Amino acid sequence: MNIGIIIGRIGGVDGVALETEKWIDVLKAMGHRIYTLSGQFQERPMDPATETLVPEMSFFSPESFWSQKKAFFYPETNPQDLIEHLNLYSKVIYKKIMLWIGERKIDLLISENASALPSHLEMGMAINKAVNKTGIPTITHDHDFAWERGDRYLSPHKDINDFVEEVFPLRSPNSVHAVINSHAADTLKERFGRSSVNVPNVMDFNQVFGVQNEKNAQLPTHMGFSKDNLFLFQITRIVRRKGIESAIRLVHELDDKKVKLIITGNYADDAGSAYYNELVNLIHELKLGEQVSFAYDLFHNKGLSNGNGEIRFSLSDAYAQATACTYFSTYEGFGNAFVEAVLARRPIFVNNYKPVYQPDIGSKGFRTVMIENGELTKENVKQMAEIIYNPGLAKEIADFNFELGKKYFSYDTLREKLEELISMATSAA
Predict the structure, then answer these.
(1) pLDDT on residue 45
(2) pLDDT mean by block of 10 residues, the chain; 429 residues
(3) CB count, 10 Å around CB of 286?
(4) Phi, psi angles (nearest 5°) of residue 134
(5) Does 216-408 match 2-202+411-428 at the fold level?
(6) Alpha helices in 255-371, H assignment, sequence order
(7) Residue 285 near residue 356 (C-beta atoms within 8 A)
(8) CA dihedral 189, 192, 196, 201 (to 10 degrees)
(9) If one looks up domain 2-202+411-428 in CATH, what number appears?
(10) Which of 28, 113, 215, 297 has the most beta carbons within 10 angstroms of its beta carbon?
(11) From residue 53, how far is each of 121, 124, 140 by CA, in Å?
(12) What residues does each domain of the chain span?
């Protein structure tokens, strides 16, 4: 089967891009031919044999930037210009999607969050129109919904709110939904009467990941630290919902100069760098400048060089050097970094991010130290310290979690879910 994937950006480290890459791996292993249509191929070249670029589909295109600004951030009194803009550029994208479907002879479409979250209005409109026009079987991989983001996608214009309600999420009769947590499945059913398949984030538990080697043994030196330090790794982007301030406060509470916190992600998605500046101020206030490191310039998703000969480390390298991982998020659609830590056999300290963590992950029986509402208690810190300073206990916990992860969040699980979704989509069309 020729399967076409539509996505705003692919190749980076955000959850949508990472999970899409895994879907592609499994779908190819199932014998399907995969073609990708994207607005941006991030941190890697595009393969013209199977991949097609549509610049207007990028979240950072002038067209999308302008419409997001006028719809949600700096709306004008009269939305007519915005509506005309949306109609015009959605038609541009629609025509390119239709051409691509014909040229690649697409049998089934997968819309990667583009039909769920209105972060690119024109792309969502174009996909909606193409799916309805062609009647092609479609899977919408819904990572986030507008109502999960507070008032981020609430406009003062009724016309825009009505439009968002109509287009997102896509609800064509020839489409089926894949959601990433049980809360989303319940909400989709309650709001729209739409059933869905709950597909968790997964990892390939047969790959070598998070293993120490000659290259990543150099990592402490490249960060300016000693090899006998104890490293807590925060392997996420720097955005407010990641709760990184709790990890910084943990370092303060442990009160040990040998404990270092390494934050691997950048703050490119932090609007105005406001959250990043708050973290810097907190580090200064707690006098942790020698213990907390923003090391995003050292890391690339796959450890690729930046082109000038400097060493770049992969996320696997980061996990390999971690004593433990911090993951104090206040909200996640699922939790990619959690599964990565499990795969890397590293203990993890987590915030009970509601409404997802406990029902979809914690209830499986993983051994973690869990805090509530981002607040560290003396008991929490004591439990974390026991793991940090006891390598035997850390290994016991990590090995236990690895076996659970292999059972619930492996490529085998994803393959079963994709077989179900493809069957549902082809039956619905």
Answers:
(1) 86
(2) 97 86 97 98 90 96 95 86 95 98 98 97 98 98 92 91 95 97 96 97 95 95 94 95 97 98 91 93 98 91 58 92 98 92 98 96 97 97 98 98 97 98 93
(3) 15
(4) -90, -25
(5) yes
(6) 274-285, 315-320, 336-343, 357-360
(7) no
(8) -90
(9) 3.40.50.2000
(10) 113
(11) 18, 16, 20
(12) 2-202+411-428, 216-408
Compute CA distances 132 → 36, 114, 128, 343, whole Å.
Answer: 20, 15, 6, 40
Dihedral (C-alpha) 205, 399, 349, 264: value to the nearest 10 degrees?
-50
Residue 148: what are its φ and ψ, rounded to 5°?
A: -85, -5
- Are 123 and 84 in contact, with CB atoms under 8 Å apart? no
Q: Sheet containing 51-53: which strands, arranged edge to edge?
A: 51-53, 33-38, 2-7, 108-112, 138-142, 175-179, 196-198
Q: How many helices (H) and strands (E) does the chain have?
A: 15, 13
At residue 356, the pLDDT reads 95
Architecture of domain 216-408: 3-Layer(aba) Sandwich (3.40)
Question: Quick one: tokens of 205?
Answer: 């538990």
Q: What is the pLDDT of residue 111?
A: 98
Instruction: Check residue 307 and give its pLDDT.
Output: 53
Determine the straight-line distance between the first and last CA of the chain, rounded to whole angstroms.
15
